[in-house]
């Protein structure tokens, strides 16, 4: 399996929508070996019972970010800001798998390649066009993009508290 990013280069947090707003917790993805492990880590970190809407937000080495949506018993939906960059490590490959992405040769220079479910956040206030535009904005770090998304979805304070 390809190498994993170092702990200091990885930020992972999950957010659950409650009647009182959003609540968040850091998520330990160190032991994630299969895509289902990501959902288990979110459930454990937030103490979910399976009926809530939860978002896993991950940022790796200022290279890429991923958002996974867990909603009731529906299959998780994933979006990656750059599927090609994510292919460089084991964790990124799990996100690519969740997003249904087959990445070509890692050494090919394909530029930024957003992938996955572009409609992931549409019903929450971030359209597919906005998500794509935010992901492709040149010179903007993944952490900054996640902050903008969190602001639009009203969990920026929770993200700031954890990051």
% residues in beta strands: 15-25%
Contiguous low-pLDDT stretches (5 residues minimum) are none
Shape: globular
* Share in helix: 25-40%
Please give the alpha-carbon distance between the first and last residues. Answer: 28 Å
Quantity of strands, as a count: 6
Counted up, domains total: 1
H/E element sequence: EEHEEEHHEHHH
What do you see in this structure?
There is one protein chain. The chain has 163 residues and is α+β, with helices and mostly antiparallel strands. The protein has one domain (8-162). It contains 6 helices and 6 strands, in the order E-E-H-E-E-E-H-H-E-H-H-H. It has a 6-stranded antiparallel β-sheet, with helices on both faces. A hairpin with a 5-residue loop joins strand 4 (64-71) and strand 5 (77-80). The chain is globular and about 45 Å long. The chain starts with 9 loop residues before the first strand and ends with a helix.
Give a topology summary.
Blueprint lengths: L9 E9 L2 E6 L8 H12 L6 E8 L3 E8 L5 E4 L2 H4 L3 H10 L15 E2 L11 H9 L5 H12 L2 H7 L1
Antiparallel strand pairs: 1-2, 1-3, 3-4, 4-5, 5-6
Helix pairs in contact: 5-6
Question: Which terms would index this structure?
Answer:
about 160 residues; six-stranded antiparallel sheet; 6 strands; about 25% strand
Entry summary:
The protein has 163 residues and is α+β, with helices and mostly antiparallel strands.
């Amino acid at each position: 399996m390809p190498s994993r990013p170092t702990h200091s280069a990885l930020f992972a947090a999950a957010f659950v929508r409650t009647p009182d707003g959003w609540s968040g917790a850091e998520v330990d993805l160190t032991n994630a070996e299969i895509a289902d492990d990501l959902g288990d880590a979110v459930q454990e970190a937030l103490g979910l019972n399976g009926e809530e809407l939860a978002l896993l937000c991950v940022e790796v080495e200022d290279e890429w970010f991923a958002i996974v949506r867990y909603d009731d018993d529906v299959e998780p939906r994933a979006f990656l800001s750059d599927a090609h960059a994510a292919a460089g490590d084991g964790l990124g490959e799990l996100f690519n798998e969740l997003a249904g992405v087959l990445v070509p040769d890692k050494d090919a220079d394909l530029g930024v390649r957003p992938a996955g479910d572009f409609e992931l956040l549409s019903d929450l206030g971030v359209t597919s066009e906005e998500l794509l535009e935010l992901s492709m904005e040149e010179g903007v770090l993944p952490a900054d993009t996640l902050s903008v998304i969190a602001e639009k979805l009203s969990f920026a304070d929770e993200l700031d508290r954890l990051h």
